[in-house]
Automatic annotation (TrEMBL):
Coiled coil region boundaries: none
Designated name of the protein: Fluoride-specific ion channel FluC
UniProt gene name: crcB
Residues that bind Na(+): G76, T79
Its job: Fluoride-specific ion channel. Important for reducing fluoride concentration in the cell, thus reducing its toxicity.
Swiss-Prot/TrEMBL catalytic activity: fluoride(in) = fluoride(out)
Keywords: Cell membrane, Ion channel, Ion transport, Membrane, Metal-binding, Sodium, Transmembrane, Transmembrane helix, Transport
Superkingdom of this protein's organism: Bacteria
Family per record: Belongs to the fluoride channel Fluc/FEX (TC 1.A.43) family.
Regulation: Na(+) is not transported, but it plays an essential structural role and its presence is essential for fluoride channel function.
Keyword Nucleotidyltransferase assigned: no
Length: 126
């Protein structure tokens, strides 16, 4: 791992965090009770990461570098497990156990399915 790669992964992570912030602000302003922004972010981030792994994982050379920058950096900064976890607990408290469990299961199952779809699509293009 080179110092340049560390810088590029950091820049990717910063960009991902900014895109997450803007996306969440845009999506959540109409739905303050339901954390739709985090839900959409985690599903789209899982789809993107799956795609990148499927597409870049089958290549040689620079693909590992791009996977680190885009996958670890951007997708790592964009998606957020910790926020989703807090929102599950918040929904559990404010909406009851059913709301919390529904959000948790929808996030988990949806993210896994999105990652699988991205991986398949990326594999087809790779």
């Amino acid at each position: 791992m080179t110092p340049l790669l560390v810088v590029l992964v950091s820049v990717g992570g910063g960009l991902g965090a900014v895109v997450r912030f803007l996306t969440d602000a845009r999506l959540s302003r109409n739905q303050p009770r339901v954390p739709i922004g985090t839900f959409v972010i985690n599903l789209s981030g899982s789809l993107l990461l799956g795609f990148l792994v499927g597409w870049l994982g089958s290549r040689d050379g620079m693909s590992a570098t791009w996977l680190a920058i885009l996958g670890t950096g951007f997708c790592g900064g964009y998606t957020t497990f910790s926020t989703a976890s807090v929102e599950v607990v918040r929904l559990w408290v404010t909406e009851g156990q059913v709301g919390g469990w529904a959000y948790a299961l929808a996030t988990l199952i949806g993210s896994v399915l999105a990652a699988a779809a991205g991986l398949s699509l990326g594999g087809l293009l790779g």
